[in-house]
Amino acid sequence: MHLAAHFPGVNSTTVWTDPRSRSQIDFTSFEHLARTAERGKFDFFFLAEGLRLREHNGRIHDLDVVGRPESLTLLNALAAVTDRLGLAATVNATFNEPYELARRLATLDHLSDGRAAWNVVTSSDAFTGENFRRGGYLDRANLPQVLGSARTGGTPYTRAAEFVATARELWDSWTPDGTSRPFAHSGQHFDISGEFTVPRSPQGHPVVIQAGDSDEGREFAASAADVIFTRHGTLEAGRTFYADVKARLAKYGREPGDLKIMPGVTVVLGETDAEAQQNAAEIRHQQVSPQNAILALEQIWGRDLSSYDPDGPLPDIDPDPGSSLVQGRVRVADPLAAAAKWRALSEAKGLSIRQTATEATARQSFIGSPATVAAELERFVTAEAADGFILVPHLTPGGLDGFVDQVVPILQERGVFRTEYTGSTLRSHLGLARPVWKS
């Protein structure tokens, strides 16, 4: 089983009002969670990305008021206070360039002695694109005109695929014996040549992670990623996703073990299963406050619903698909279908707005005593619903402490999780081969 820790950051998973919750930007918070993950022998520590403060109805969204530090800067600092833990940064392939990012990732891999990873994400968001000098973004409908370049075409994923391939060409431009060679790449999105400044790093290539559940995202992961960060709510949904993605690997000459599937999950513990269920209910109640319930609803409806009672019924009006009420957050692809799903859930169970939002937005959770949670985690891996999990705690920075102290020892006793690190690089933790150098 593979395990990773996600710093909860600025999202609705985090319970801000808990007195144990600390800073989202102070280095000691990141250090605490990373040290805890390493104490638990986790594979890697995972940071999200935020390239613009999100807005809601023209105001900065409450969950963004503390800001978002830059991932690679933080991970370079964490490399100095950890020894074995992998360090994974989410970096957008839409608003960066291959040469610069390849240098930064290779540098992290050197400074950490082979523990760097890149979570590749894309964006088709004009609101975020305004933060960048060219003012461009990869619009799915009208891409060449947006960036004003005849070279540009395709989708954010086609750019991401070429971006990753170009970065790997740069990493391979130094031979294993330390000789630099000129590189040249001319493609649909990038036309670059020169010499790369960073020698081949300890892992050869940093580990590549991809986040996404769409068909295009699955195909990209099968062709180019080492890990896929996903979510699925049930064992059966996980098994379906697992089988689908693993089946795509063969066409790219890859084996099932070459891509690790690791859904993001939450864990709530208690001395008994009943106590854990009570704890989980209290946490969800804190996560979905009356205000957050209305905000979640407005993200789908695209309308100002502040006059609605969170403890009352859902709106009887339809969503506005073209709304710009919410900016910087991903709106659902089909608001009308999502609203219909929420209405069906509300009507079937007699739920209020807040209760519906609480149930509809719940991330996949493992709830129970340490023994129960350990058994469920093992069941998902044994049933081929996942290769491991990325844990997203609800508290910063101590939300992982209980899992490491109480669940990890049980997993170790069951023989499904390491008791010690057996290698020094992230690739060794994940059981991934070092990339063969391409001459």
Describe the secondary structure blueprint for this structure.
Layout (H helix, E strand, L loop, with lengths): L1 E5 L20 H13 L4 E4 L7 E2 L2 E2 L10 H9 L6 E7 L5 H14 L4 E6 L4 H4 L13 H5 L8 H16 L11 E4 L4 E4 L12 E5 L3 H10 L2 E4 L4 H13 L12 E10 L3 H15 L2 H12 L24 E2 L7 H15 L3 H8 L4 E4 L1 H13 L5 E4 L9 H13 L12 H5 L9
Parallel strand pairs: 1-2, 1-14, 2-5, 5-6, 6-9, 9-10, 10-11, 11-13, 11-14
Antiparallel strand pairs: 3-4, 3-12, 7-8
Helix pairs in contact: 2-3, 3-6, 6-7, 10-12, 13-14
Structural class: alpha/beta
Number of domains: 2
Poorly predicted runs of 5 or more residues: 135-152
Assembly status: single chain
Strand content: 5-15%
* Number of helices, counting only DSSP H or I runs of 4 residues or more: 15
CATH architecture title of the largest domain: Alpha-Beta Barrel
Radius of gyration based on Cα positions:
22 Å
User: Could you name the CATH class of the largest domain?
Assistant: Alpha Beta
CATH superfamily of the largest domain: Luciferase-like domain
Mean pLDDT: 88
* Strand order of the biggest β-sheet: 1-2-5-6-9-10-11-14
| CATH fold name of the largest domain | TIM Barrel
Give a short account of the largest sheet: 8 strands, parallel, barrel
Could you say which overall geometry the principal axes of the C-alpha atoms support?
A: globular
Provide an overview of this structure.
- The protein is an alpha/beta fold.
- It has two domains: 339 residues, TIM Barrel (Alpha-Beta Barrel); 72 residues, no CATH class.
- Helices cover 38% and strands 14% of the residues.
- It contains 15 helices and 14 strands.
- The strands form three sheets. The protein has an eight-stranded parallel β-barrel with strand order 1-2-5-6-9-10-11-14, surrounded by six helices. A three-stranded antiparallel beta sheet has the order 4-3-12.
- α3 crosses α6.
- The longest helix is centred in the middle third of the chain and has 16 residues.
- It is globular.
